Request: fold
Amino acid sequence: MEELLKQLSWDTPKSIKKEAIKKLKKEKDLRIFFQPTSKECNKNVWDNCAKIIISKTDAELIPYMDNMFEWLQDMNWPGSWKILKRIKKIPFKKIEKSFTKNLKIALQELDEEGIYLNSWAGNLIMIHLTKKTIYNPKIDLEEEIIKWYEENILKSKK
Reply:
């Protein structure tokens, strides 16, 4: 398995990488694909690990939602945009519990004013709001984020 993971590296020839992805897509335990951090398998394989992850069905991904949300901590990480797009395709009701848990963790990193959302919290809230607003371009998402934060977080702190 480790040998196949190594073949996902961004400097592996395309044909070898493609074959490794094909073989690894058969793997049922997805834990190995969530941001591996060994000496030879680290950020250099993350984008291709994300390709494998996003190929899975909603039912296969639900047990790994915490891992998927954690990947959104830094949108510069390889594969993060693929993971974000895949999360957005899953009905919110199916991921709400994990979403809420991860949002609470992310919101602990807010500044004292609670106004400037860290990128992880912002990314998570955007997932939620985008599901409501994606078909209505007249909605100001920044205003919606602040409103959502005030209604759902500030009230719970009082």
